[in-house]
Design brief:
The protein is mainly α. It is built from ten helices and three strands.
């Protein structure tokens, strides 16, 4: 007599949840071939194989509706299978490309923070978020930001990191915003922002927008210090 599987045994054998098997039963994708006297679902070897077919086709990216259609026939046109394989291949290649980009971002961040005893978490997250934001808005930013080689990217992020750390420290130590140290830091920030926005051939006295809808690594106290220091810097230029 064939060994029959309960729904729990089938779930464990195939690494599928019982909830999923209940759903497959509900949509008539996979019904148990047998039932116990008490009405408990019992699955045969053929049911097990059918579930493995479903798992295989699902892995290739097919919807449950498409899988149901394919399982009605024992054969499928080679051209149709080739399309399925091609689609899955492209999907995986895109995933690999995204993972490579993520690894490279992590490598860049590792170089940016190298040699520091302690890291401001909010600044670290800001730099990471900026990378993510640039990637997500690549099309809109095309031409607005310069293309940076890897070494240039690391250098730029280090400059931002250093400046942001000093801004936080100055605000914390209540360094006067009109002091030479604070004004020199604002000049450095102006220069880095200008280089980032590719406006080096134009006047660099642009407003630093602290209200843009992006993650901001500064506290309210720090933002007031930056705003006051920058406004004072602008006044000295006029």
């Amino acid at each position: 007599m064939e060994n029959l599987l309960t729904i729990g045994q089938l779930a464990k054998r195939t690494n599928v949840t019982i909830r999923t098997l209940h759903y497959y039963d509900k949509i008539d994708l996979l019904k148990s071939s047998e039932h116990s006297e008490g009405g408990v679902r019992l699955y045969t070897h053929n049911d097990l194989n059918k579930l493995r077919q479903i798992q295989s086709l699902k892995f290739l990216g097919l919807s449950l509706k498409e899988i149901a259609g394919l399982l009605k026939d024992k054969t499928v046109k080679q051209a149709d299978i080739e399309k399925i394989i091609s689609y899955k291949r492209e999907e995986l290649l895109e995933e690999i490309d995204e993972k490579k980009k993520t690894v490279e971002k992590l490598n860049v961040m590792s170089e940016v923070i190298h040699g520091r005893d302690y890291i401001y978490l909010d600044i670290f997250c800001f730099i990471v978020y900026a990378m993510i934001w640039e990637e997500e808005n690549k099309a809109e930013l095309d031409g607005a930001l310069p293309f940076l080689q890897r070494d240039e990217r690391v250098k730029l992020d280090k400059e931002y990191f250093d400046i942001y750390v000093e801004l936080k420290q100055f605000a914390s130590k209540e360094v006067p915003f009109f002091s030479e140290k604070a004004q020199n830091l604002i000049r450095r920030l102006e220069k880095v922002v200008a280089n980032t926005l590719s406006i080096d051939k134009h006047p660099v006295h642009k407003d630093i927008n602290l209200n843009i809808d992006l993650y901001n690594p500064f506290s309210e106290k720090e933002k007031r210090f930056i705003e006051n220091a920058y406004n004072y810097y602008r006044e000295t230029l006029s």
